[in-house]
Structure formats: C-alpha cells, structure tokens
Amino acid sequence: MNPKSTIKGRGAQLNVPNRFFELSHEMRDDFLEFCQKEGEESDKNKTLYLEVFPKTIVNKVESPDIGMMYSMNSYQGCEHGCIYCYARNSHEYWGYSAGLDFERRIMVKKDAPKLLEAVIKKKCWKAHPIVMSGNTDCYQPAEKQFKITRECLKVFLKYKHPVAIITKNALICRDLDILKPLAKENLIGVNISITSLSEDTRRILEPRTATIKKRLETVSILSENGIPVNVMLAPIIPSINSHEILPLAKAASEHGALGIAHTIVRLNGAIGQIFSDWIHKTMPDRAEKVLHQIENCHGGTLNDSRYGTRMRCEGKIAEQINTLVRLARKKYFKDKRMPKLNVDLHEQFKDGQLKLF
Description:
Layout: H1 30-38, E1 48-51, E2 58-60, E3 70-72, E4 75-76, H2 100-104, E5 105-108, H3 112-120, E6 130-132, H4 142-146, H5 148-158, E7 163-167, H6 176-184, E8 188-193, H7 199-205, H8 212-224, E9 229-236, H9 245-254, E10 259-264, H10 271-282, H11 287-297, H12 316-332, H13 344-354
Parallel strand pairs: 1-5, 3-6, 6-7, 7-8, 8-9, 9-10
Antiparallel strand pairs: 2-3, 4-5
Helix pairs in contact: 3-5, 5-6, 9-12
C-alpha cells in the first residue's frame, strides 16, 4: 500500500454517490485527486459533530433474522471507520455519502436520554431488552465528549429496564459504576466485537477502534465485575480473518467471555463499491481472491439480502466458516452461556410506582 495514496486514519478512501441524489448531484473526488497530484493539502480530514433532534430514539427491529426486538442509537455515523460496516448505507438517508462522510459527519442525539425515558415510562410499554448500537457504536470516540450513552444507562438503571450493548471500544469500562448495579439485577448484557487478533489487520480494517489487546482486556474487566460478555466474531471475511476463528474463540473464552456469535461479511448497497476500492488499495495482492470468495458465499454477488441466509450464507466457503464456529463453541464454550435478561423487574417497578398515585 502506498501511504500517499490513502487517507490516513480512515477506512473508506472515497465518497461514493448517494443513491437518493440525482446524477447531477453526484459527489466526486476529482478535486481531491488533483490536489494530491499537485502536492497540495486538499482535505483536512477532520470529524464534524452535528447535533440533530429526532422525535423518537427507540426503534422496533422488523428483520426476522436479527436477535433483537428494539434498538437505539445515540449517534449516526461512526468514526471507527470499519470498512465493512452495514450501517454505512443509513448515512444516505441523511443526505451524506456512505463512504468518508459516514466516518467524518457524526450526528449527535443529545436528547436521547430524555426520549428514552419517555418511552419506557409509558403505561403501554412492555419491557424488552433494548440494544444500544443496533446501527452505530454507542461508545465511539464521540461518546468520550458527549456522554450520551452514559446518561442513557442511568435511565435504564433508574427504571430497572434491561439493556444490551454492542461495542468495540474500551471506553465502556468508564461506566462500570452503572454497569455493575445493572448486572446485579440481571439487566445488562455486553457484546464486544473482536474481528482479528492481528493489529496489522485491525489497523486497516477498523482504523479508529480500540486495539485488540484493549478489547480483550475489556472482556476480562467486565467479566471480573460480574457483567456477562459475549464476543462478536463479526464479520468473518474469507482470506482476511477466516483463518482466525479458533484462535479468536480461544482468546475470548480465556478472557471470560460466555459465548461467541458470528456473521459472514455481506457488502450490501454502497458498501460493495467502498470495500472493493479499499481492498484494491490496501491488499492489492489478494483483492480479487477475497472478492471472489465473498461472492462464493452469496451466490455469485457481493450481497444477498434474503432473510435467513444473508448472515450465514451458502456455498463451500460459508459451510467451512460455519462449521469452524460450531467447533469453536463446542471446544471453548461447552459449559458457558449468556444469561437471559430480566424483563419482569421493570414491570414490578412500574406497578410499584403507579401505586403511589
């Protein structure tokens, strides 16, 4: 890889056109490319935080093959810059590109704690685990400044409501003072995403995430404090991290994880173009091999949107990956299991509060 031809600290290396714009509004990188050739600084590569004001924060998940009923996102866009992220496409709904804009235009929902409280206070609301980070990471770098996730966790604790978290950032350990009392009431489950044990792979695949060492330490710290942790081996990408399934599972188990979950990469929407551009720039020697193997998992295309098959895929390569994950579970997690979160405590709390009036 030629460092001069890439944008430092970012996953995506271009802004692809937004599918909702007409061709006359297509975003182009001609100016950036011209400046690079001339040796001029064309792009300061800064992250912008933009405050937005949504009317709701809790979303019902309609997809039948995703193990959650409700999710919420404190931020839209994610500075972590994971090149494979399925959430990139959602940035187009805001008028931005799924490429560099997704990593550099972060929308901040400061009203999230207030909106969350309004939802779970409703008389008609029945407690279900709400997943923080159903779309983008709730502990991405912006959280260090805005602390929206922390304030939302306080709301969950106040109302004895179950919550699950998906993250790849060690910042979650900052909130142990809230996570521990939630865990004591069986109201919290944490999913830590660990995609590789190689720092070289991590740096190009997930450029602004916590190091692998930090993530494994986070699994240990949470486990030692009684907070149940599941490790997400997601996504598995053929010929990039598919050979690491057993070592990843072993490391997760040794650090206290109670289980593992996985998906196989799918490059839906604009992500196919973004990923293809990225891999030809970062791994030119195996770019075509990786892309063809991904296609092998999706019936000859980079993406298969069929419910039930899109996560686990089909074909020989997918079969090998899924078999390895099953073996890893049997070998390293035979007597371990993530606990089911308590949905009754909130109802009891709510009933007790209503009796006061």
